[in-house]
Amino acid sequence: MASSSLRFTQPTFPNSILKTKTNTFFVSKNVFPTPVPNKGKASNAHAITKLACVNKTTEIAACNQIIGDVNSKLMPLRIGIIGFGNFGQFIAKGLRRQGHFVLATSRSDYSEYCKQNGMQFFRNMDALCEEQPDVILVCSSILSTENIIRSIPIHKLKPDTIFADVLSVKQFPKNLFLEILPPGFGIVCTHPMFGPESGKNGWNGLPFVFEKVRVTDAGTQAEKCTQFLDIFEQEGCQMVEMTCEEHDRHAAGSQFITHTIGRILSHLNLESTPISTKGYKTLLQLTKNTVSDSFDLYYGLFMYNVNATEQMDNLDRAFETVKQMLYGRLHDILRKQIVERVPMQGELRTKSINSRSYLTDKENIKKLASVAIPEINLSDAVTVSSPR
Ligand code: NAP
Q: Which residues does the UniProt record annotate as the domain Prephenate/arogenate dehydrogenase (predicted)?
């Protein structure tokens, strides 16, 4: 289809430009109506009646192509969020920024919040599923996810619905989806590596991990999946494709450790001081970020990631090693004093003043230096403290 054979009405606003692989079309603004549930192509066909195709022979083909493009690429997605708490609301704002429709349901009632933010709230899962969203995005706590997924009335959804999740662990929802969802359903497991605190100034440059676990090329599922992932790409996220298993290995050694250190620090009740260093300020910030997440989330990171226990053990060993390095040195000093009768620094000075015969000043300093800085080999310290 050559672009020269077609002429369309002048653009009425800047968003009304349709790009196909071969052509750019100017379309009136009616082409993006609020989608009517279950109407699909019919409502879009109605919307493009203002296109003026001058060449009759190419009119139908052109319009069909545009309908196809509008349906598969440019129609906003209807995304049903399940679990509309802290993170569900945060992610919903990004979906709205990218022009998609947000439908939400949750254990608690967020209807007022949704009304104020141009989203639709449904009191229960049945009502949300009857709307047949393109994508179901699971944003519930890790701990509640299995019960929630098992209670979804799947038969009410379209047979090619895409299921996505944002859980901070990945192998668990992947296996759960594969076990429960009918084969026609698409599965995309994702983990935005940021949250309401770290992403409050935008998502640009923040990592977004995903695995297309099961996406079929038949129908529009693959295109909708791309459209869904494009939301995060358009927001500037650093898109990282990796398997859920890989994710969990990396996350246990990074995210879980970060949360654990933050949780430990929170028990110290650290406060800002007039002489806080940059490092200390970073620790205060880490503590603040960590405790702003629910304990359920942290427990989920531990319980639902097979690699977390190993990291907890590593952390335990590392702490013991550091303690050993400090106390080991102290023990050496005390041992020298008790067994070898090497006097302590204060004693030395007193004795050297009181008794000239004990040791000369020069000898004192040499002896002290050898006691104060015993030659501890770092690898010895690790071996001593790592019986496991
Ligand atoms: P969360 O405590 O992990 O989850 C809270 C959500 O789970 C709320 O929507 C809550 O519903 C729902 N929920 C909790 N217990 C439930 C139960 N027994 N039955 C039904 N629903 C229940 O906190 P979150 O920060 O909002 O995290 C949500 C998901 O996002 C988690 O899977 C988490 O791993 C993931 N995530 C979080 C972050 C982050 O920075 N926070 C970043 C990336 C991914 P109600 O609000 O209706 O009570």
A: 77-356
- Residue found under tokens 């879009």: 44
pLDDT for 42 beyond 80: no
Which amino acid does the sequence have at 133? Answer: P
Q: Which residues face 79 on adjacent strands?
A: 102, 135
Residue 108: CB within 6 Å of ligand 1? Answer: yes
Residue 146 near ligand 1, beta carbon < 6 Å = no
Distance CA(126)–CA(20), nearest Å, equals 37
Instruction: Give pLDDT tens digits for 222-253.
Output: 999 999 999 999 999 999 999 999 999 999 99
Cβ 27 vs Cβ 37: under 8 Å: no
Instruction: Indicate the pTM of the whole model.
Output: 0.74
Residues 6 or more apart whose CB falls under 8 angstroms from that of 158 comprise 132, 134
Contact 42, 48 (CB under 8 A): no
Question: In whole angstroms, what is the distance from residue 350 CA to residue 374 CA?
Answer: 23
CB distance 141 to ligand 1 below 6 Å = yes
For 119, list phi and psi in degrees, rounded to 5.
-125, 165
